């Protein structure tokens, strides 16, 4: 199962996190990040705020990576 599928399942269930099937890392869901209310600047995988608080050039790299998925 891909991380997208695992994330979707966790988000639908209202979970705050899920475990990435490839790395084993705990990842915050988009639902949790939306409830938090702002971009924290950490470059979270599912940031619903388009990485607005991440500084350049990392912000552009994250946005490009997201567009490639």
Q: How do you describe this structure in short?
A:
This protein is mainly alpha-helical. The protein has helices at 3-12, 30-36, 58-68; strands spanning 17-19, 26-28.
Observed structural traits:
69 residues, mainly alpha, two-stranded antiparallel ribbon, 3 helices
Low-confidence runs (pLDDT<50, min 5 residues)?
none
Q: What share of the residues lie within helices?
A: 40-55%
Shape: globular
How much of the residues is beta strand, in percent?
5-15%
Order of helices and strands: HEEHH
How many alpha or pi helices? 3
Number of beta strands: 2
Number of domains: 1
Largest sheet: 2 strands, antiparallel
What's the rounded overall pLDDT mean?
96
Terminal Cα separation, in Å? 16 Å
What would you call the structural class? Answer: mainly alpha
Strands side by side in the biggest sheet: 1-2
Question: What is the rounded Rg?
Answer: 12 Å
């Amino acid at each position: 199962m891909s991380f997208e599928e695992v994330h979707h399942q966790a988000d639908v269930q209202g979970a705050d996190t899920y475990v990435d099937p490839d790395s084993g890392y705990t990842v915050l869901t988009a639902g949790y990040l939306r409830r938090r209310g702002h971009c924290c600047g950490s470059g979270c995988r599912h940031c619903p705020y388009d990485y607005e608080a991440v500084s350049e050039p990392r912000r552009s790299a994250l946005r490009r990576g997201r567009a490639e998925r």
